[in-house]
Amino acid sequence: MLYYRKLFSADAPRIEAHFLDLSPEDRRRRFHSLLGDDAIRAYCRGFDWSERAVIGAFDLDRLVGIAECVRVADGNAEIAVSVDARWQHHGVGRELVRRAAASAANSGAATAVLDYAPGDTSIPHIARSLGGDVDGTRSVAQIALPAHDAAAEIEELIEDFGAALAGAFEAALWPWRFAAAAIAPGATIDRGVAER
Asked: Which CATH class is domain 2-163?
């Protein structure tokens, strides 16, 4: 079960590990260039947490996706997203962008901007599914955001709280999966999950 929550400076090692685990192609799509490990570490060390909202998608305690939302000039917010290859095409990127866009709207932004690498089809697909427009010539997607209101802020807080509870519940049940598999005849454990 996936859950989503905001990330904070204490999550910096997880963020760095997520970026370092990205394939070369996924690094290119996320950073618009093929960054090496040292450049990714420097990027993570340079995070200014006061300027950005960072939302993570978790599979148990493993960070499998990140959306970063940074306010830029003229009421715009820029969103960048990355998702672990095993979780791509399962709606994780869309949900991360949706949550980042809601956070941007709650901070007063009017438009969310997503730059994407030429040839990338996932960001245009996500933006269109959220009502956005895509300029394929410039490789830019834009999503018009609703006006800031208190109800949306409360909804964001409730989502964050619910996600934290879901994550705690999932983590509490995790050890029991192995015990149940050990005593159930013919049961198997997904090796990809067990190796995490």
From this structure: alpha beta
